[in-house]
Amino acid sequence: MARNPKVEVGALNLRIPEENYRDYVALVQAVSELRRGFRVFGDTYVAISWFDEGDGIGVISKYTEIDLDGEWFDIEKFDTAEPAQIEEINIPGSLKPNHYRFYFQLDSDLHVLAFESYGESRSLSINSFEKYMREALLQ
């Protein structure tokens, strides 16, 4: 018997100080336009990869940043990879592995960004997304 799909949702309360112009759509749009991921844990990075300011919906991307210059492990030999094997590796710097998408919706009136935090056995913690937003807003 198949299991029912499970989806969890998290929310982040955004708050622009009262003395400033409160445009939450512009705030999220500015973060989106950075087109930059920030490290949130270990080798995991997060970025807002798409945002539709008209509908207030978007996509948060989570991916892994790997050190291509680090040592490699050969699971067939169960030992350190040989230099000749490593020379065969050709991963363009623009490609990042383990990409997962999490959808979000911005409610400007409530200044809340609600996002999918678990789906299809993949998760994005509220703490990770909060850390990303803090880093992005410091730019």
Protein architecture, described:
There is one protein chain. 17% of the residues are buried. It is built from three helices and nine strands. Strand 3 and strand 4 form a beta hairpin. The mean pLDDT is 93. By secondary structure, the chain is an alpha+beta fold. The strands form two sheets. Strands 1, 2, 3, 4, 7, 8 and 9 form a seven-stranded antiparallel sheet that branches. Strands 5-6 form a two-stranded antiparallel sheet.
Task: Supply database-style keywords.
139 residues, seven-stranded antiparallel β-sheet, alpha+beta, two-stranded antiparallel sheet
Q: Which series of helices and strands comes N to C? A: EHEEEEEHEEEH
* Cα-to-Cα separation, first versus last residue: 49 Å
Low-confidence stretches: none
Q: What fraction strand?
A: 35-45%
Radius of gyration over alpha carbons?
19 Å
What is the general shape?
elongated
Give the count of helical stretches: 3
Main beta sheet:
7 strands, antiparallel
- Give average pLDDT, whole number: 93
Q: Would you count the extended β strands for me?
A: 9
Helix fraction by DSSP (H/I, runs of at least 4): 10-25%
User: Strand pairing plus helix content: what structural class?
Assistant: alpha+beta
